[in-house]
Amino acid sequence: MSPTIKVLLAEDQSMVREALAALLGLEDDIEVVAQVARGDEVLAAVREHAVDVALLDIEMPGCTGIEAAAQVRRSLPEVKLVVLTTFGRPGYLRSAMEAGADAFLVKDAPAAQLAEAVRKVLAGERVIDPTLAAAALAEGANPLTDREREILRAASDGSTNAELAKALHLSQGTVRNYLSTAIQKLAVRNRAEAVRIAREKGWL
Amino acid sequence: MSPTIKVLLAEDQSMVREALAALLGLEDDIEVVAQVARGDEVLAAVREHAVDVALLDIEMPGCTGIEAAAQVRRSLPEVKLVVLTTFGRPGYLRSAMEAGADAFLVKDAPAAQLAEAVRKVLAGERVIDPTLAAAALAEGANPLTDREREILRAASDGSTNAELAKALHLSQGTVRNYLSTAIQKLAVRNRAEAVRIAREKGWL
DNA sequence: CGGCAGCCATGACATCTGTCATACGCCACT
DNA sequence: AGTGGCGTATGACAGATGTCATGGCTGCCG
């Protein structure tokens, strides 16, 4: 039989991370050789442990799993990348694919799919929930410009226009213009809704 | 040796739930006898499987783990309750304790603490992160009235005053008054910040 | 080169939001 | 019986927010 598959697990919540490790540990052909809790530790760990497949949560301190995936893809293109996330947001799927992910799994899916996905990506297959893929295609690309996204993100904690203007070195009017166009593009009525919708779609 | 400890696992994300089950399955003295994905299925499952310890995630469809805990505590007071959550919000800890929980764990904690907590609550101990306990005490109780909470919750999706007034059968002025007092109590400057802070503290 | 998109800004306007004073009814506690 | 807290409501005011028209600057693409 072929040697075991070396897997890295990147997930910030220890309990979940170790539980997933226990789950994968039940598989004979899979070995979890490294665990990290931060996105910015992924690349070094992948390199150090000669990892075959990296399992990356999206929401992590340091940097997101998607950014980490892009880093690994650039430096070590032969490593397979599985992105794992709580939220099945179409925009996340899109960004993950653009970052070079081989699989995209939501934590809602049955646990069996995890080991399954690891084996499949190693065999050169791609693993994507078809429902999500359809949603991602149906929704189209992110309509927001970089600046609009940045300002929306900054506004998401309830900052006022004056604070945003100061923080971003803009005039208040400019901030309002950006927010206004973002509100129109997202077809909503105020910044709070705009933030919510953009979040839901994974556009923030 | 005593018979195995019968545990119920309530957590909406299958992958996490099954991973936690795998983790607990590694312990000789613990047996996961039931798994549910919704808060409103907890009570029936606990009853049916003669569960010793119920492990409850807070964020679940149906009803929250805290509400489920309260139900179990009322009907089957001898069952031990462990509340498990992603967010270490002091307000959550407080509500969990008021609902009769025996332990409160955050998913950030090392996985070993899970089995540990199961054994301890069965022995009659309480398990609470001392840092969180201190934070919960330092922060004081939720200053918001029922109505203020309700309106803040309704406002959290970006609804306008007119929509809130219609949805809650109130006058617009009343809605604004409630939001205004909530804003003052939370010492913030607008509804968006109020929603954010109340969420963070677990007061929503 | 010309056009278009993105970035930045201003001013004016309408509307929404947050504050304050005030008031009434209800309920619980003293 | 009085007090205080909560829920509800109104009206008035100031300030924040969203929209629109308009303009200048840059850089990319055809």
TrEMBL record, chains A, B:
* Superkingdom of the organism of origin: Bacteria
Question: Residue positions of the PTM 4-aspartylphosphate?
Answer: D57
What region holds the HTH luxR-type domain? 137-202
Give the matching SUPFAM superfamilies: C-terminal effector domain of the bipartite response regulators (SSF46894), CheY-like (SSF52172)
Question: What InterPro entries does the annotation carry?
Answer: CheY-like_superfamily, Sig_transdc_resp-reg_C-effctor, Sig_transdc_resp-reg_receiver, Tscrpt_reg_LuxR_C, WalR-like
List keywords of the entry alphabetically. DNA-binding, Phosphoprotein
Question: Domain Response regulatory, which positions?
Answer: 6-122
Protein name (record): Response regulator transcription factor
**Organism, as annotated:** Streptomyces spinosisporus
Lineage of this protein's species?
Bacteria, Bacillati, Actinomycetota, Actinomycetes, Kitasatosporales
